[in-house]
Amino acid sequence: MTSWLRTFGSVPLCLLLCCLVVAVCGEASSAGDSVCGSPSISSCTECLRRGPQCAWCFKEDFLDGAGPSQRCDLPVKLLRKGCEPEFMEQSEIKVEVNATVSSTQVSPRDINITLGPGSEASIIVAVKQLERYPVDLYYLVDVSASMQENLDHLKTVGVALSLRMTEHSSDLWLGFGSFVDKPVSPYINVHPSKINNPCSDYEIRCRPAHGFHHVLSMTGNMSEFTRVIKRQRISGNMDTPEGGLDAMLQATVCQRSVGWRPEAKRLLLLMTDQPSHLALDSRLAGIVTPHDGLCHLENNVYTGSTRMDHPSVGQLSDKLLENHMYSIFAVEKHQYQWYEELVRLLPGSYLGKLGLFQAPNLIELVVDAYKRLLSEVAVSVSVEDKAVSRYWVSVSPLCPSGSTAKDQSCSGVQPNQTVYFNITIGMHSCPDNGEDEDVTVLVRPVGYNESTIVRIHSKCRCSCGPTRHCNDDSQSPCKGTQDSPSQEQRPDHGLIKDSDRDSNWNCKADGSDVDCSGRGVCECGRCVCEQTRLGTVYGKYCEIDDFSCPYEGGLLCGGRGVCVSGECVCEVDWTGDSCGCPVSTATCQSANGLLCSGRGRCVCGKCLCEDPRHSGDFCERCPACQSTCQSYWKCVDCHLSHGLSQKKAGHCNNTCAPLVGYMDDVSGQAGEMLIQCMYISNDSCRYRFQTSSQSGQTQLHISTRPECASSSRLVGTFLSVCALTVLCGLVAVAVSRLLLQKRHLSREGAAEDGGYHCTGKDLSYIPTTNEKTVTYRRDCPPDRPLEMHIQVPKMPLGDPWQY
């Protein structure tokens, strides 16, 4: 086998690589676990039948004492349990492309695939459309009496069609054959006078009815074609349907008689004005033998017409594909619907509806059909009958630019363009006998004389390494070759007689009086450990299990590993006693990219801060650190005393952090890890500084711009505030005085207008008149009324009240 990539270097690499890509059904998931881990599995063959994701460990001491079902599991789990890859039996999936077979249209031509139960493989088949092909066109004409006029139109078709096809073909050859129906009753009139001349009632000389008559083999001589057509005569039959499909099959399979050229595009044109008989119709004539699909021409006459039934549509379809045929149906419009249903079942077929079978119409029909059929590229995939139920096939076309994908084909393909078909072949199951088998799958591009042969080898049996010993139930552990003492010395027990020999002599651990640690039974001198819902018990004496490991989150080994000999064997990315610690430190990366902000260590996926003052998921918080600006005051004061000079900064190494820098302004700096502080010097100036920590080292940045305030400025500010306060008080008093005066004047005006009526609620009223006269009147006795007048003078405002 050689690489196909060398042969087709111009084909896109991404598509060619798909030819060697093998897709395996199933994944290593919980579903895969349930498929592989079944207690009913007892042999390697049963394990591999579970699917391509399952593997069988044939290592002899693997999980010693455990049941055979424990040997079947996912490869990754078997590896964790201690089974090395060289001791694993898996479904073998392999694709080999044979690029030594040359081809111009279809590639590759030969592919070998190895599959196992439940597995699948994908290949790419490329079909290239050439620019010009030689064309073989065979006219298969219904010569019943109703086709007399149509037969006459064929006499002028040959030369005109040859000239027209020169635009599309490099070489056109024509052939001719005729058909009517099976020459038996009830399809024809079997009266002796009607057999040789079915048209005797019309005083016309007709030829006898026939199933198929090959008249002219393929030729490029158009004059010979025209001469043969002119010599043709009509025939006759009794029923309406004709034997068109029977004649089509003979014209297809009789390659040598018809003269089909291997390199040519083959067009089979059926001309009729009636529908065709189908399979089982021949029972009316007592013919029950199915058609064998072979050629039966003797002296160019179909001799099997009276012995075999009409072919089925499926049989005809297979023969058309097998012989690279395009079929064209030229029918009258009233039969169009019947043949439209037929064309759907025949790949590579074209239906033309003609009002009249005139020469121009026939020429256009052939030209249009040829262009249409060549522009549509499709493939047919067939599996051998013996294995068709055990395999499945999927086809996906990859059409070139400008064409359209439809089902399993591409339409509108131009010359020199290539269509790629992604074909996936999958295997359901092995044969009933469980043996390996070889199956052939044919990939046939419709109408092409080249095809791809896919040879599938199904791997159903286990080889289990060089020793071919799978350690399953198919190979019984109880054999006569097993070592067992006949007379031997047991420690401290003396000589053992044959009558005293016990079958469990090798099933007790040292210092134990219980067989198989009380968790199994001894068979043939070996422990067969019990199965429990908790897990697997194994070991030479059933002393080991896979469930006595730490749990995390309610899962054994946290669901991230397997329990082997009481210890968790973790997956690649996990560690710890219960597989609860990720190996990666990605969960400890802080926003600045440092591990735990440079202030701690990543332990089990979490930050462990080195300084107890720090906290947070990434040691990013330090509430105590933000209130310790005072701890840096001595350092800042030292640098201020040396004039903030880099040359003299070394004098402060004893009191300062290792890294000290100067900045014009630190107030604009912001960040999650920066702490802003302030220091007030002896001259009442404020110096801003900030602290930060990077990679665990403290840095100090001091501002070189102090914020100072003078004493004179403070006095001026104090006097200004006092003056402003006094001014505001005076303004408030003046405004109050004005409001009182305005209120007094308004009350005097009201008194002058009509007096003021005092109420008990207004006690602040002061009368404005000098006196007030109060009159009291007493009406009793009624004959002598009494009046009293009292004058109340106005009392000065400051005088005391006198009674």
Automatic annotation (TrEMBL):
<feature type="disulfide bond">
    <location>
        <begin position="609"/>
        <end position="619"/>
    </location>
</feature>
<comment type="similarity">
    <text>Belongs to the integrin beta chain family.</text>
</comment>
<feature type="disulfide bond">
    <location>
        <begin position="529"/>
        <end position="542"/>
    </location>
</feature>
<feature type="disulfide bond">
    <location>
        <begin position="199"/>
        <end position="206"/>
    </location>
</feature>
<dbReference type="InterPro" id="IPR032695">
    <property type="entry name" value="Integrin_dom_sf"/>
</dbReference>
<dbReference type="InterPro" id="IPR016201">
    <property type="entry name" value="PSI"/>
</dbReference>
<dbReference type="GO" id="GO:0007229">
    <property type="term" value="P:integrin-mediated signaling pathway"/>
</dbReference>
<keyword id="KW-0245">EGF-like domain</keyword>
<dbReference type="GO" id="GO:0046872">
    <property type="term" value="F:metal ion binding"/>
</dbReference>
<dbReference type="InterPro" id="IPR036349">
    <property type="entry name" value="Integrin_bsu_tail_dom_sf"/>
</dbReference>
<feature type="disulfide bond">
    <location>
        <begin position="44"/>
        <end position="54"/>
    </location>
</feature>
<feature type="disulfide bond">
    <location>
        <begin position="656"/>
        <end position="685"/>
    </location>
</feature>
<keyword id="KW-0106">Calcium</keyword>
<keyword id="KW-0812">Transmembrane</keyword>
<keyword id="KW-0479">Metal-binding</keyword>
<keyword id="KW-0460">Magnesium</keyword>
<feature type="disulfide bond">
    <location>
        <begin position="635"/>
        <end position="708"/>
    </location>
</feature>
<feature type="disulfide bond">
    <location>
        <begin position="604"/>
        <end position="652"/>
    </location>
</feature>
<dbReference type="InterPro" id="IPR057073">
    <property type="entry name" value="EGF_integrin_2"/>
</dbReference>
<dbReference type="InterPro" id="IPR012896">
    <property type="entry name" value="Integrin_bsu_tail"/>
</dbReference>
<feature type="disulfide bond">
    <location>
        <begin position="460"/>
        <end position="464"/>
    </location>
</feature>
<feature type="disulfide bond">
    <location>
        <begin position="36"/>
        <end position="462"/>
    </location>
</feature>
<dbReference type="InterPro" id="IPR015812">
    <property type="entry name" value="Integrin_bsu"/>
</dbReference>
<dbReference type="GO" id="GO:0098609">
    <property type="term" value="P:cell-cell adhesion"/>
</dbReference>
<feature type="disulfide bond">
    <location>
        <begin position="399"/>
        <end position="410"/>
    </location>
</feature>
<feature type="region of interest" description="Disordered">
    <location>
        <begin position="466"/>
        <end position="499"/>
    </location>
</feature>
<feature type="disulfide bond">
    <location>
        <begin position="57"/>
        <end position="72"/>
    </location>
</feature>
<feature type="disulfide bond">
    <location>
        <begin position="254"/>
        <end position="295"/>
    </location>
</feature>
<feature type="disulfide bond">
    <location>
        <begin position="602"/>
        <end position="607"/>
    </location>
</feature>
<keyword id="KW-0472">Membrane</keyword>
<dbReference type="Pfam" id="PF07965">
    <property type="entry name" value="Integrin_B_tail"/>
</dbReference>
<feature type="compositionally biased region" description="Polar residues">
    <location>
        <begin position="473"/>
        <end position="488"/>
    </location>
</feature>
<dbReference type="InterPro" id="IPR033760">
    <property type="entry name" value="Integrin_beta_N"/>
</dbReference>
<dbReference type="InterPro" id="IPR057243">
    <property type="entry name" value="Integrin_I-EGF_CS"/>
</dbReference>
<dbReference type="InterPro" id="IPR002369">
    <property type="entry name" value="Integrin_bsu_VWA"/>
</dbReference>
<feature type="disulfide bond">
    <location>
        <begin position="563"/>
        <end position="568"/>
    </location>
</feature>
<keyword id="KW-0677">Repeat</keyword>
<feature type="disulfide bond">
    <location>
        <begin position="581"/>
        <end position="588"/>
    </location>
</feature>
<feature type="disulfide bond">
    <location>
        <begin position="622"/>
        <end position="625"/>
    </location>
</feature>
<dbReference type="InterPro" id="IPR036465">
    <property type="entry name" value="vWFA_dom_sf"/>
</dbReference>
<feature type="transmembrane region" description="Helical">
    <location>
        <begin position="714"/>
        <end position="740"/>
    </location>
</feature>
<feature type="domain" description="PSI">
    <location>
        <begin position="35"/>
        <end position="84"/>
    </location>
</feature>
